[in-house]
Amino acid sequence: MICAGDKLVCTDGNPFFKEGSIYTVGDILTSELFEVKVGPNGEYWYATKDNEGIRVSFNSNETAINDAYFSKVK
Description:
- The chain has 74 residues and is mostly beta strands.
- The chain has no helices and 6 strands.
């Protein structure tokens, strides 16, 4: 279960999330959707947790950006 304040390590990065970096979980929106804080001024991306793991998905018609994957820091 993901909780606000949990730490996540990026296990498979992309141009927005650096592999090996630690990120903090923000607000929990649903049991599968929550915020990942990315900046000092309250910026965040939406992340999901499901049977494929924890990830931030990027859907863009303009560029091919891969999803970023995370693991919960124990």
